[in-house]
Amino acid sequence: MPIISFGSQDIDLITGKKTVTIRKLWKNPLKIGDRLHCYWNLVSKEKKKIFEAEVTAVDLISFKDLKNDEEIAKEEGYENSLDMVKEFKKMYVNDIDDDDLFQIIHFKKLDIDQWEGEKINEKAMVTQRADILFDSGKYDKSALCYTAALKFDPNDVYLLNKRGDNLSRLGRFEDAVRCYDKALEIEPKNEYIWNNKSIALLNYGNPEKALETNNKAMELNSKNSVVLYWRGFILEVLGKLNEALEVYDELIRIDNKNPEVWNARGNLLSEMEEPEEALKSYDRALELCFDDNDIDAEAQNRKGNALLDLGRFDEALESYDKAIDIAKNNLEDPSYFILNKGVVLMELNRFQEAMESFTKVLAINPKNDDARVLRDECLENL
């Protein structure tokens, strides 16, 4: 019973694209018709059976010929033969000689009712892999897995919704909407899917249609905080600022401990040129971030902007400094926050320090025209 282990990154196995693998010649070589039991991560805690297969062809090749064959390397899923050789040297800890033989094993996946060994829930296995990839931000690979899982059940609402979410992450908003529409044909009273569709439509540049779709979700549950949050955002995009503010206020009545809502309210009030009220919202948002790790640089920057609008320059400077420190600690680009700090320093007539700030921005991004113009203005005032 030959067993083959694959790395869990070999997603093409479950999509059916990968039907060949290369292994060093075994003591008992494979032959056509042999049964393969295929696993992911065989020697780890994540060991998982993926399928059984039948060998359809076996070719032998010396390592001397294999290591320079770019075509075989690409068929095996590597960028080039050099990457393939590096991987083989990890797999086979003893040195590989040029005369060593390798098997190029071609196989076909067998239907589960033809398996000899333990049978698994293939749909659940593929779905779990898709969810893991989605949560880790590997959207190209997770999209392939959700597509593969839907082959087992094209009407699975969970999978249709998740595939729609996945396609949205990839910027394929029309395809995402089609997935949501199919899911809604099956579950027309699912407010979350209506909401997800509205988000896709908004990102696709159709806020009017997004609001219509959000209305459908509201009809089902007007107190759903997720639906309300996106409703406020859609109304902002449509320029319906007072209506958006009413939505955020309603959200706060439902749950006044959500920092994201307070931040959104602060952003809206800033746009409405009400910096005093905006500052209150930003302060409340920061208060609710009990863990310092939850406070991001942009939150401090928004507070700094509100303080700047109010002419409270020393406090604004303090907020921008915090934003810069957070960005640096998170290995993020701090240049935007440094630029804002420079503007405040100019307001305080601290032109030498302001010029140094703009110089730092230009060191990070030499093409930042704002920093260049402002630095020149500082020079004129020195």
From TrEMBL:
InterPro entries: ASCH_domain, Prenyl_trans_a, PUA-like_sf, TPR-like_helical_dom_sf, TPR_2, TPR_rpt, Ycf3/AcsC/BcsC/TPR_MFPF. The keyword NADP does not apply. Keywords: Repeat, TPR repeat. CDD domains: ASCH_yqfb_like (cd06552). GO terms for molecular function: protein prenyltransferase activity. Residues 4-111 form the ASCH domain. This is Photosystem I assembly protein Ycf3.
